[in-house]
Amino acid sequence: MLLNMFLFFNFLFAPSPKVEIPTSIYDFKIEALDGSTIDFSKFKGKKILIVNTASKCGYTPQYEALQKIYEKYKDKLVIVGFPANNFLYQEPGSNDKIAEFCKKNYGVSFPMAAKISVKGKDMAAIYHWLTEKEYNHFADSDIKWNFQKYLINEKGEIINMFLSGVKPDSPELIAAIEK
């Protein structure tokens, strides 16, 4: 019994394996929902809005506004969605199910990454970059919930982070995009 408890706590509090973190957002190549690759180097010269998403969340309707913004600003902005199941199992589906849900319900055409983890021991490298000042040279932050947004400027620098409650079409987010 004591050995099992020791092993459990050792697992829980063991240090995370060291993950290689690129120095620039443009160095990331991420698997997409459809198995292709999202190459961030192709987004140089555009703003990038990165959003962790979930299909069964109270914020899921934000997909609609994200799609509208993507269509309106596609010459100067790319949105990349990162489905994650980190909050109350609100993204339980496979990549195929997530893609089908997004297309059918919201007409999502912006790039969607394969499902990842945005926090914890198995946090994806891009989320280490987004949330750790050591890598992003902006600020340390925590992913509080689904649909948290990071806005990156045309030079690949984070310029703002918006919590889940900030709608994609809110005046403050639109002003940051148009700046």
Structure description:
The protein is α+β, with helices and mostly antiparallel strands and 179 residues long. The protein has one domain: 3-Layer(aba) Sandwich (Glutaredoxin). Helices cover 30% and strands 16% of the residues. It contains six helices and six strands, in the order αβββαβαααββα. It has helices at 2-13, 62-72, 95-106, 125-131, 133-136, 171-178, and strands at residues 29-31, 37-39, 47-53, 77-83, 149-152, 158-162. A four-stranded mixed β-sheet has the order 4-3-5-6, covered by helices on one side.
Instruction: Please state the CA-atom Rg, rounded to the nearest Å.
Output: 17 Å
Overall geometry comes to globular
Overall residue-averaged pLDDT value: 92
User: Beta-strand level of the residues, as a percent range?
Assistant: 15-25%
CATH class: Alpha Beta
Number of separate structural domains: 1
* Helix count from the secondary structure assignment: 6
Q: Based on DSSP secondary structure assignment, what is the total number of beta strands?
A: 6
**CATH fold title:** Glutaredoxin
What class, by secondary structure content?
Answer: alpha+beta
Distance between the termini: 60 Å
Low-confidence stretches: none
Largest sheet: 4 strands, mixed
Give the helices and strands as they follow along the chain. HEEEHEHHHEEH
Helical content stands at 25-40%
Strand order of the largest sheet: 4-3-5-6
Query: What CATH architecture would you give?
Result: 3-Layer(aba) Sandwich
- CATH-wise, what's the superfamily? Glutaredoxin
